[in-house]
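Ticket reopened. Same input as before:
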Amino acid sequence: MIQLTNIDKYYDSKFQRTYVLKDIILEVKEGEFLSVMGPSGSGKSTLLNIIGLMDSPSSGKYLLDGNSVLDLKEKVRVDYHRNFISFIFQAYHLIEEMTVYENIETPLIYKGVKSHDRESMVADLLDRFNIVAKKDLFPQQLSGGQQQLVGIARAIISKPKLLLADEPTGNLHSTQGEMIMETLKELNNEGMTIIHVTHNEKFAQYGKRIIRLEDGNIRSDTNRKT
Amino acid sequence: MRGILKSSYQNFVHRPITNLINLIGLAVSLALVIILSLYSFGELTTDHFHKNADRVYLYGDNNKIYTPGILKDQIDLSIPGVESSVRIASTWEPPVFQVAEHDPLKSDLIFADEGFFRLFTYKTIEGNPDAAMKEPMSLVITRQLAEKLFGNKQAVGQLVKLNNSNEMTVRAVIERPKENSCLSFNALASIATQKIMQPNEGEFTEWGWSNFQTFLLLKDNTNPQVTAKKIIALFPENRRNDYKNTHLIPLKKIYFSKFEIYGTDFLQAGDKNKVLVLILVAALVLMIALINFVNISSSQWLDKIRQTGVMKVFGARQSEILRNMLAETFLFFLSALFLAAFLAVIFIPDIQNYTGIRVNPKLMFSGPFLSIAIGASFILSFLFSMIPALRVSSSNVLDNLKKNLNPQTGKSPLRGILVAVQFTIAIVLIAFTLLVQKQVNFGSSSFGFNQENTISVNITPQLNQKKDVIRKILLDNPSVKRISMCQYYPGKTISQWGTQLETGNGKKQVNFDTFAADAQFFNLMGLQLVSGRFYSDDLSTDADKVVVNESFLRENKIDNPIGTKLLTRGNAEIIGVVKDFHYKAVNHPIAALAIRNDPSTSYCLVNLQTTNFNSLHNTIQKIKKEITELSPSFPVEIAFFDQAIEKMYQSEILFKKTFSLFAGIAIVICCLGILAMSLFACQRRVKEIGIRKVNGAKVSEILTMLNKDFVKWVAIAFVIATPVAYYVMHKWLENFAYKTELSWWIFALAGLLALGIALLTVSWQSWKAATRNPVEALRYE
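Engineering reply: fixed in the latest deploy. New output:
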């Protein structure tokens, strides 16, 4: 599904070139659950942003679902964001002025789903994550774990093929973190491809495959036998 | 104090762009307020500078300020309350001043009685003006005229020849006052001089001639009403009725009185309405700037609250925080004020040139003005920072330090309401500007006569004897279609006659404006005949025939004028009625007019038949050259009709310029405000925009989202502004005798313009926010 070839990402300053990612070669197949690990500043988030089409590499090739996705027009990129890729974040990034319900509904509005259909889709997800009672609350009235559940709900409501999670458990204590990871695992079992960036060794083990980044390079790439 | 300076500076550089916008907006609007208040102050204190201003009066009523010359003698003889009386008269046409080494120069001249300088205060530069007023053929001139005539040489003692005939001696040079005055002249001579230059014994001995303005200096504690009654009693009984409404007009009020002056206008009138409208504009501009101030500074509350939280934890008292915040605001206002004074000094000359308003920048540095300005800044800064300062200083420490402040503080409806108020003002100003434009265009387009390709040549005394030669020269020129010798010139003052009309059943008193014109005049002007006929060139049959306009019939209530006779010299017979046309400025109604077939000539109107600009120019140069040869001692002036017409409503054009300029500035300040607000809104929503983009929002959708709020408030402003604008515009149009319509499109256009301006301003920021890479916004905080 994802094919990265010789991906570089660097910043030029006056006298030197600083590499964030160097010569990354990575292939991710459909249905994989990939954990990306590495110390701060090793380029994990940059790699995720490049995969999520929010950032572009300085050089290299990127095939997504068989198509090159470098230098896309806004329209095409937005289409990917509407239908193919979704994100969840460490800081949840819910819209504070909106209720839980409205937050989850947002991607559907951009996708152009009719109001009637939206209602039932949001209701299904609220039900699935057991947050029906919270649907009229605002994000800051929820616990961190609940906010992240809303974030996941928002991410998967448009039925993306690829879910990118940037330290989704970073702000949570371990019970809540486990709950989130279980949810992700479940989604993966349903067939969703997930790439998951984390510091946490334990949570990384939820992935079927783990890569470790160091100074912009892939140091190891292991498939975990279950 | 140093602490406050330092923290003000730090706060300023913390958000440089919004603070700069805030400061510049406030400074520009204060500069405008300064300029307009100087202007209004100057206008409203016109003639206050004369030492005896409180005791000086003009005798007359609102329509008539011309009095007989003999009146002064009678007043001096029999009215004890009058300390001094002064008649003032002007020459009919500005005379030509000739000095040995200089080209002849046309300038104005007035005549006055001896006491002139007791009534009116002027600074003397050289010579003795009082003595000059006693001797015949002595001149008092202003410094400006002295410089034009003699350059740097001493003017006193120099000889000047007037109109190529009378030799006069300059006895004194005076300074034209810096302050506003209703009297405007460059040269002054005694009444004795007038008797020599324009001999007309009847002016001084008969009650029937009214050629003077009579000014009086009353003794202390003399009642002007009683004095006016006594003066009316001086008139012979058959004249008294004409003067029954006369009273004494205080000198300070003359400027804003409305009367018409014929001949050279040494009396200048102002328009109180314009002053009031401009004061209103100044107030609105200030309001817009203050709203900006409130909006921008309240958007910084969040920062402030966090800051004070820390300060409180370290032991600051509430009163200290309050005092600091108020002091900072005052400092901000004070810097805006100084910047404003600086801007005003720089731009006053340009604004004066462009708009024609009179401003005395020196006033700005006078003690009272400075103290008022600083005091007002203090009060304003106090008023507009008290509420936020109280809120910030009294807030709870723990709340202040919380990371997630209630996001609703950033989105209060108050700010939207303030934006709506600003846009209401902006829409009213735009609509009003459009209306002023429309009214001025209306004035210039509906004169009721030809104005294109027509020029006028002034007939100087030397040309007056050579009219046949001129006629031949002009008619030989192939580009000349028609010419007419007449006394008419657009907007030029015309004489007014009052006489009796002999109708079939008795005599009737009639008053009317009048001028002389030859038979070609009607054709050249393209005037339309209503009834009867125009007179012809044949003087044997049509000399002394008269054509009147429709208003003549209406005002004097005559049904069938043809064949009636005006009992003047030669008993002129009315033979035709012409359709009304604007012979005066458009803010005066068309009055009764009689056009006489009389050889008196002041102008030769020439209609040219060419459309090409170059050939037009060449033709005019040729005509000027040929005619100048016939008039070596007097300058020949050629004027385009349409330019002369423009002069007729010059005060409206200047008002249009003034108003548009200031309204434009108001709108720019308004834009600065919403620019700062949109900047703030975008900053506040950076994260939200990022999230929405990641969730599949397109740039256009983000733009719509960001601009929607502003559009909503502009729409509300439009709904409020329309009736307000309608009312104001309706009121303003009532000043005009001939007014344009209040079309719906004025409102629509004003609303659309306001919307367009708002969208452009807001989109500048929205676009930046919407096209930003979401990664930056969503980076872990």
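Chain B touches chain A at residues 404, 407, 411, 687-688, 690-699, 701, 773-775, 778, 780-781 (CB under 8 Å). The longest strand of chain B covers residues 506-516. Please confirm and we'll close it.
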